[in-house]
Design a protein that fits this description.
With 154 residues, this protein is mainly β. The protein has 2 helices and 13 strands, in the order βββββββαββββββα. A 6-stranded mixed beta sheet has the order 10-3-4-13-12-11. A 5-stranded mixed beta sheet has the order 5-8-9-7-6. It starts with a strand and ends with a helix.
Length: 154
Amino acid sequence: MRNRHVDDVGEIKNMPKEIIKYLTFQVDKEVYGFDINFIVDINRIQEITLVPQQDAYVKGVINLRGQIIPVIEIRARFGKSVRAYDDRTCIIVMNFEEYTVGVIVDTVLEVVSVEKDQITSQKNFDKKSRFVQGITKSNDYMITLMDIEKLLFE
């Protein structure tokens, strides 16, 4: 059902719903999403140069077309055990404010379009879910939508 509003003469008009696109990815059997507006690139896993004295979830840096980019391991960030990389492992490169960061995920799935009013707000979740912006459903599975700022900087 589309949003409707009444114009000045009482006529009902359909208003388009706000659509947000998310790049979905998988970690174990769970599906997550990043707002597509922050995504710069998706790359296969590549050699990562370790940087000492970093948080456990910071894997190191990569050289992407001459740009040195820090890379985080999302499994470690979530407190999960890190697994061996395979041919489906990807680095999602994103820009947030003035930062460019790569995030290692198990598998990139697809881009989905979500109506904003179909997203359950993060306010409904426990404070332990600090990286969660909201949850939505697409096809037959749930998508946990990530708060990129909190994921990268908290």
